[in-house]
Design goal:
mainly alpha
Length: 221
């Protein structure tokens, strides 16, 4: 019981204001909140189970820096995807599935190397138990991100859809750009390279948005 409560409280506190809570907020203004909640839950139970059971092994096999760079790059992709709309998914069935998988995959990668995943590893090592830590940290994530979803739903009802789309896309791209700046080797980063990369992302986003004609599909239900 001590491990369960400690895990729950620590993760709720750690998640407040964290990027994954902000991602929950951004997704909630674009997709139906039950879909967002389901995606967050699916990603969290898998990610935190990995953190308890195999997190240490994974970071020994795959350097943590590589995981963090891949996660940062994925945020830029999700941001551009948001500007383009769900037509990237192709057929009708894929469109219906894409919001759940978009949320689940984004959260899974966002948690890799994040402080809540590292906290889960530390708690499992301290209490030498799996299930209570796993359940506690998962419940903590759901409570904290649930608050983000509530805020996102309220925002989505008050803000024009086009502004919602651009706001969500810019949040994803901002996370991706800052993540790449933080985790890429300094030898690969120069002012010119950073400016060129940012300009390229913005240019692609601009053309994707124009291709959609400024229209945001109403897939929030």
């Amino acid at each position: 019981m001590t491990a369960l409560l400690a895990s729950f409280l620590l993760v709720v506190l750690a998640e407040m204001g964290d990027k994954t809570q902000l991602l929950a907020m951004a997704f909630a203004v674009r997709y139906p909140w039950p879909t967002v909640l389901a995606g967050v839950f699916a990603a969290t139970i898998v990610n935190h189970l990995l953190a308890v059971e195999a997190g240490n092994y994974l970071t020994r096999v795959v350097p943590l820096q590589y995981i963090q760079v891949a996660a940062a790059a994925s945020f830029i992709v999700f941001g551009l995807w948001t500007l383009h709309g769900d037509k990237l998914a192709g057929e009708a069935d894929a469109v219906r599935r894409s919001p759940f998988w978009t949320v689940a995959i984004a959260f899974f990668f966002a948690e890799m190397g994040d402080k809540t995943q590292l906290a889960t590893l530390a708690l499992a090592a301290r209490y030498q138990t799996v299930v209570p830590v796993w359940l506690g940290t998962t419940a903590g994530m759901m409570v904290a991100d649930g608050l983000g979803i509530i805020v996102g739903v309220v925002m989505g009802r008050r803000i024009p859809e086009r502004l919602v789309k651009w706001g969500a896309a810019l949040i994803f791209i901002a996370f991706g750009v800052t993540g790449l700046y933080e985790y890429l080797p300094r030898g690969l980063i120069s002012p010119a390279a950073a400016a060129l990369g940012l300009a390229l992302v913005l240019l692609v986003g601009y053309f994707l948005a124009r291709r959609e004609g400024g229209r945001l599909p109403d897939d929030r239900g």
